[in-house]
Amino acid sequence: MEKVLIIAEAGVNHNGDFEKAKELIKVAADSGADFVKFQTFKAEKLVSKSAKKAQYQELNLKDADNSQFSMLKKLEIPEEWYLNLINYSKSLSIKFLSTGFDEESIDFLETFEPELYKLPSGEITNKLLIQHIAQKGKPIILSTGMAYMKEIEDAINVIENEGLDRSYITVLHCNTEYPTPMEDVNLKAMLHIERELGVKIGYSDHTLGIEVPIAAVALGARVIEKHFTLDKSLPGPDHKASLEPIELKNMVSAIRNIELAIFGSGIKEPSESEIKNKILGRKSLYASKEIEVGEFIKKEDIIALRPGDGISPMDYEKVVGKKTKERFSKFEKITLDKII
């Protein structure tokens, strides 16, 4: 079984600071995640200057400027950072990934030969961008926050019409409220996507804590994406709904344990590690009292006791009604050589 792909989403939590971006890469690498992911965009190609902040962005930033454009402008990653960040990621043995929000950004990212592309939830109805990404011929991870099944199916059809097979697509169930209330997670929708669309599935999480992505893995998610930060108290739109370094590390560790736990044949049989406990943990038939020579053994004359290296209690009928050839003392193991 392929291991779960874990994407540590740094997003815009670098706050426009190159050193913070490097710190985020280090944290992601230390956690054991497979990818560290940022966001590549030009504010002018992402939002109009009249666009307002989302409610969670207003609450988290608490400033007088309600412009989404001015907020995002400060969070663009300068092009000259990329090569340094990619090389730094390589030096720490973690893969670098960035979500492109427009065709120009995708073309820029393509110069670094990424192994896959991530389409964010807000772009699932952006046919132009979906086509542009699909034409790169690489695996696509598709996030589905705010989407209906028909919209997901339409996006997949666009990808397939560009010649990319459905096997290249992983669809992430997602809710784009930051943080997502537990009652709105609807994790079973991930399984519905798998059944109805025949694609690999995963989960992009915006809840507080780590339990939901862990549950998603137990249900069959093959990709997990989770925002993280250096410090939840930092200013910025996404910090408060992100994991701090120790939480990210704990999430990755838990997911790796869950992977091991669900790996196997699916057949119920003793594992290698527990075979040695079989005799110690099970019982054999013993005499519950003294049984003299020539007595017929009655049901009340026997008791099941550990260890299980003798006659199994499942076979007690083979003993009851038999005549003893030798005397049994109280709590002596019953053996077939001493009965007729």
What does it look like?
The protein has helices at residues 18-31, 43-46, 55-61, 68-73, 79-91, 103-110, 127-134, 149-161, 188-197, 211-219, 245-262, 272-275, 278-281, and strands at residues 5-11, 35-40, 95-100, 117-119, 140-143, 169-174, 200-205, 223-227, 284-287, 302-305. The protein has 340 residues and is α/β, with parallel strands linked by helices. It folds into two domains: 5-262, Aldolase class I (TIM Barrel); 272-338, Type Iii Antifreeze Protein Isoform Hplc 12. The chain has an eight-stranded parallel beta sheet with strand order 3-2-1-8-7-6-5-4. A two-stranded antiparallel ribbon has the order 9-10. It starts with a strand and ends in a 35-residue tail after the last strand. The relative contact order is 0.12.
What can be said about this structure in brief?
By secondary structure, the protein is an alpha/beta fold. 35% of the residues lie in helices and 15% in strands. The chain has helices at 18-31, 43-46, 55-61, 68-73, 79-91, 103-110, 127-134, 149-161, 188-197, 211-219, 245-262, 272-275, 278-281; strands at 5-11, 35-40, 95-100, 117-119, 140-143, 169-174, 200-205, 223-227, 284-287, 302-305.
CATH superfamily of the largest domain: Aldolase class I
Give me the strand/helix succession. EHEHHHHEHEHEHEHEHEHHHEE
Helix-residue proportion: 25-40%
Q: What gyration radius follows from the Cα positions, in whole Å? A: 30 Å
Kindly state the mean pLDDT as a whole number?
95
CATH topology of the largest domain: TIM Barrel
Strand order of the largest sheet: 3-2-1-8-7-6-5-4
Tally the beta strands: 10
